[in-house]
Amino acid sequence: MELSPEKDYVLKSIQSNDIHFIRFWFTDVLGSLKSFAVTPSEIDGAFEEGMGFDGSSIEGFSRIQESDMLAFPDASTFQALPWRPKENGVARMFCDVRTPDGEPFEGDPRHALKRMLKKASDMGFTMNVGPELEFFYFSDPTSTTPLDNGGYFDLTPLDLASDIRRDTVLSLENMGIPVEYSHHEVAPSQHEIDLRYDDALSMADAVMTYRLVVKEVAMQHGVYASFMPKPISVQNGNGMHVHQSLFTDTGENAFFDASDPQGYNLSFVAKSYIAGILKYAPEFTAVTNQFVNSYKRLVPGFEAPVYITWARRNRSALVRVPLYKPGKELATRIEVRSPDPACNPYLAFAVMLGAGLAGIEEKLTLPAEFTANAFELSSEELVAQGVSTLPDDLGSAIDLLEGSKLMHEILGPHIHSYFVRNKRAEWAAYRSHVTDWEVDRYLAIL
Predict the structure, then answer these.
(1) Sign of the torsion angle spanned by Cα atoms 389, 392, 398, 399
(2) Which among 48, 54, 140, 438 is annotated as catalytic?
(3) What digits encode the pLDDT tens for the residues 278-289?
(4) Which of 48, 79, 103 is where one domain is finished?
(5) Residue 186 lies in a domain
(6) In CATH, what number is assigned to the domain containing residue 79?
(7) Of 107, 264, 425, 433, which is most buried, counting CB atoms within 10 Å of its CB?
(8) pLDDT in tens, 331-382
(9) What is the Cα–Cα distance from 346 to 33, expressed in whole angstroms?
């Protein structure tokens, strides 16, 4: 059996780095990381035949009578885990999930993204992504006690949070994930580490790794890291602003056009892509913002992008186009500001790409740039200007997702139907729950 160079590299790395366990990683439909470990002696067979596991135990995968699944490791994703001992070390590979007959499993989120990337490829494009993930450090998992009182870009005296963030960046880079920026965010004990752009599939894998690394390093320092969208009611929530662009087969940025008559330096492809995002954002919000708590962040007044507009300098818009710098054509991109870091990155990238490609196929026209500060306008003023908003709770978002033909096509019937069922159950449970806020407000007066 002749191995590909990537598979041969994996086998040699296992031997030379004293790797004794290889963790196979994949996600359920909601984006929770799943894993099982295999020994080096099983890797040859896993590359050829996959490793079997019980899919009925995985959220959103399969029914008990269809439980057998196979995990096929992607050799290009092999990395040693830097937080585990070097002696008798541990490595990981992301996996593609297949059915026993070798076909891609329709409930695998990685496969859903691959299908959309194949569609983009058929149209002559590849998707590059650069996400900005925000998170909080808390003293423990049961409280929201911050580790610092810093603010946006603050350079605070050396403290525990600074050490944790540094160690996190080093761990990410040790795993081959380049970091572009790291800084303190707006809220106390809120931080952000931005990953350097990469192709969408590699970046989705990197986001899953990022979330685990942030939590592992925090745990080593005796604290808790949270990607909960809105853990503190009076502070800004955690976002995942997603910078994205399309490149042609010849390596040119399909979003850039120096001859743009409107002076934006945006191509027809870019303008139609943005228009597709704006048109279908209400339908994909349940995927990019998938929890009840996500909608506590998507409210006016906390810099959250709830208004379906686009702009260049205006950060109150849903889609922002960073200003073009001469000689930086390859950096032309858009930034979708609504997703939060608790989403499933495979599905989030898939629905945004699918919406943008639909805009190109439908030849949608980009509306006028929104230059006002939406946060300073009343609801009546926004309506008068034709500005609509994202759904304001999970129930409304699920209604839009369920009725969306495009999202059904992008996600596939398996993931689409499961996602809707799961989120309807979450919404029903939330609606029936009596909160402390209600008891404090009403019990003594009603």
Answers:
(1) negative
(2) 54
(3) 999 999 999 999
(4) 103
(5) yes
(6) 3.10.20.70
(7) 107
(8) 899 999 999 999 999 999 999 999 999 999 999 999 999 887 777 777 777 7
(9) 12
